[in-house]
Amino acid sequence: xxxxxxxxxxxxxxxxxxxxxxxxxxxxxxxxxxxxxxxxxxxxxxxxxxxxxxxxxxxxxxxxxxxxxxxxxxxxxxxxxxxxxxxxxxxxxxxxxxxxxxxxxxxxxxxxxxxxxxxxxxxxxxxxxxxxxxxxxxxxxxxxxxxxxxxxxxxxxxxxxxxxxxxxxxxxxxxxxx
Length: 178
Description:
By secondary structure, the protein is α+β, with helices and mostly antiparallel strands. It is 38% helix and 22% strand. It has 4 helices and 7 strands; from the N terminus they run αβββαβαβαββ. It has helices at residues 18-41, 82-103, 123-138, 150-155, and strands at 46-50, 64-68, 73-76, 111-115, 142-146, 158-165, 169-176. The protein has a 3-stranded antiparallel sheet. Strands 4-5 form a two-stranded parallel sheet. The longest helix has 24 residues, at 18-41. It is globular.
């Protein structure tokens, strides 16, 4: 059960500044949204949680750890591989957009651009990440991916290709294979 590893801000008697307390509440909401995607991308293996405060420490409420659902253990976020780190970062970015939208009903995060990181993913993980991004795009959001990964280029139907030329500078082509 993940709840035994989770501590709410100030729950253990440590003092927090008002700013840290408020930020920790926002982070909790972001993690709710982010973990929905992170679990999907990692085939149910990982969840992110705020680092549990240790006695005598203050204002350590914004750190992240990883709960490995397969082993039942919590580990530092720095132990993730490059591909896993990319999935965690992507999940946090998408979770933040969702949280902002939920906090402020009129604010919509309609576009997100992702620059690289896909080269760190194996083929199966790339499929999982793409499923998550396709689902995000189907929810009335534009997902822009900036990448040089050949496998990724094959999977994307609508492309804006920018090529550098000596004579003309950068040339833009728009391709759609719908």
